[in-house]
TrEMBL record:
Intrachain disulfide bonds: 146-152
Compartments (UniProt record): Vacuole
Protein name: Aspartic proteinase
Entry GO MF terms: aspartic-type endopeptidase activity
Matching Pfam families: Asp, SapB_1, SapB_2
Predominant location category: other
Biological processes annotated in GO: lipid metabolic process; proteolysis
PANTHER family according to UniProt: ASPARTIC PROTEINASE A1 (PTHR47966:SF76), BETA-SITE APP-CLEAVING ENZYME, ISOFORM A-RELATED (PTHR47966)
Family: Belongs to the peptidase A1 family.
Annotated catalytic residues: 133, 320
Alphabetical UniProt keywords: Aspartyl protease, Disulfide bond, Glycoprotein, Hydrolase, Protease, Signal, Vacuole, Zymogen
Length: 539
């Protein structure tokens, strides 16, 4: 959930993505709209095992996916602003890989769209399935006092009266998501994650879960693994208490997400260390640059091995287990969509700007005008001294008929800025002017739809380019089979682009949200002791 709190990993409807995201310190929550996904049904059954390595694991199984269940829900992620970012460098110290004081909790893979596992609350323990979300920080589950939300009747409910370790709190709480909000009140009880028992943990008993999102969810609640800075009500996150109560050896946790939806094991989260069986080589670590989300600095994005130039000056990124897809600036997502042949909604504003101002923009760039001032020079943006900014919404009257054309200058400004980036990229490749103008028009045709939905031809996967991200000076590549979500087989197969657009302006952006698609290819370590995030090829 990076995009605010509950990004239920591309689940049905993205049920839990908060609509807004709050700044990391005070809590402004953002949210990115994730495209509709085709989901199937899975059944969760837990099998405990205690391997000789001393790690406690909970095995997860699932029922075969039903490819006919298309768009079982529309996912929403989160918008963005002061999201989280961090970067990785070097490898894990040997002592972090020891098996002692490490707890492993396997996760369930819901059609590559959501990963969840079991926890228990109270004494005796009451079991719940939750999304483990590095993009939020609260723990919430449905309450037995939830009487007016249908969703509560289809999920496990917490019954405080049946727990001998329950402590009353009563403080009201509400978390806003794109599809609605969950609200309720705080309570305190023991929480068991794997074989770790966290005592006196504050959590939210949800008494209201409106909308179909929660009704169709394959999980009961959410366990946030972000920093306390983004916790609603400033509640102490579960993983903070694991460290404070001395329950884990090292102040870190790691994720392995199995992207093979046909395999029994969905993945695993390890508290207190890493499982060396699930990664190759050494991790590349980057420092957390903004505490709240796991945010770090990221370099350029490459398409087919060629730099786009958009992030050559630096972008921010967030590692978010609660977001299923990869979210980034519309400018680059459009370039990716064009390269992979994704079908998006045509942007009239983009095409209008390209038609009316394309040659002028080209001439200014050839005359070596500053790219960040081009759009202000032609009157589509203003310049604040460092960059072009929107002039706001302005209604223009067509003098010939006296009717308002309703032109949005902020949309024109954005379209112009994208055109500048695209043209600059093509000029750097020594393309002809005609080819560049045609390229810009092609990109306009590939503009993502408002809901982020983009479909691709399953038969073209082998010819699609790789998409890579530069992190900590290293290039992390994703192949088409890794960034395209495929549902079904044969002629009935449906393929969805794993990229969606999200635009966060400076100084909080440009921002990328690296969700499960990225974390599925790269084993990810969240190291709070050293305030860093690490990536290594998953095994």
């Amino acid at each position: 959930m990076f995009l605010h709190q509950l990004s239920l990993a591309l689940f049905l409807f993205s049920c839990c993505e908060p609509a807004t995201i709050k700044p990391v310190n005070m809590g402004t929550i953002f949210k990115v709209v994730v495209l509709p996904l085709f989901l199937s049904s899975l059944l969760l059954s837990l099998v405990s095992s205690a391997p000789n390595d001393g790690l406690f694991r909970i095995g997860l199984k699932k029922v075969k996916l039903d490819p006919n269940n298309r768009v079982a829900a529309q996912l929403e992620s989160k918008n963005v602003e002061a999201l989280r970012a961090s970067m990785r460098k070097y490898h894990l110290p040997a002592n972090l890989e020891d098996s002692g004081d490490i707890d492993i909790l396997p996760l369930k893979n819901y059609l590559d769209a959501q990963y969840y596992g079991e926890i228990a609350i109270g004494t005796p323990p009451q079991t719940f399935t939750v999304i483990f979300d590095t993009g939020s920080a609260n723990l919430w589950v449905p309450s037995s006092k939830c009487h007016f939300s249908v969703a509560c009747y289809f999920h496990a409910n917490y019954k405080s009266g049946k727990s001998s370790t329950y402590k009353k709190n009563g403080t009201s709480a509400s978390i806003q998501y794109g599809t609605g909000a969950i609200s309720g009140f705080y309570s305190n009880d023991n929480v068991q994650v794997g074989d770790i028992v966290v005592e006196n943990q504050d959590f939210i008993e949800a008494t209201s879960e409106p909308g179909l999102t929660f009704l169709a969810a394959k999980f009961d609640g959410l366990l946030g693994l972000g920093f306390q800075e983004i916790s609603v009500g400033n509640a102490v996150p579960v993983w903070y208490n694991m460290i404070e109560q001395g329950l884990i050896k090292e102040p870190l946790f790691s994720f392995w997400l199995n992207r093979n939806a046909q395999e029994e094991e969905g993945g695993e989260i390890v508290f207190g260390g890493v499982d060396p069986n699930h990664f190759k080589g050494k991790h590349t670590y980057v420092p957390v640059t903004k505490k709240g989300y796991w945010q770090f600095d990221m370099g350029d994005v490459l398409i087919g091995g060629k730099p786009t130039g958009y992030c050559s000056g630096g972008c921010f990124a967030v590692a978010d287990s609660g977001t299923s897809l990869l979210a980034g600036p519309t400018t680059v997502i459009t370039m990716i969509n064009q390269a992979i042949g994704a079908e998006g909604v045509v942007s009239q504003e983009c095409k209008a700007v390209a038609q009316q101002y394309g040659q002028t923009i080209m001439n200014l760039l050839l005359a070596e005008a500053r790219p960040d001032k081009v759009c202000s020079q032609i009157g589509l943006c203003t310049f604040d001294g460092t960059r072009s900014v929107s002039m706001g919404i302005e209604s223009v009257v067509d003098k010939s008929n006296g009717k308002s054309s309703g032109i949005l200058h902020d949309a024109s400004c954005s379209a112009c800025e994208m055109a500048v980036v695209w043209m600059k990229n093509q000029l750097g490749q020594n393309q002809t002017q005609d080819r560049i103008l045609n390229y810009v028009n092609e990109l306009c045709e590939r503009m993502p739809s408002p809901m982020g939905q983009s479909a691709v031809d399953c038969g073209r996967l082998s010819s699609m380019p790789s998409v890579s991200f530069t992190i900590g000076g290293k290039v992390f590549e994703l192949t088409p089979n890794e960034y395209i979500l495929k549902v079904g087989e044969g002629p009935q197969a449906q393929c969805i682009s794993g990229f969606i657009n999200i635009d966060i302006p400076p100084p909080r952006g440009p921002l990328w949200i690296l969700g499960d698609i990225f974390m599925g290819r790269y084993h990810t370590v969240f190291d709070s002791g050293n305030m860093r995030v690490g990536f290594a090829e998953a095994a």
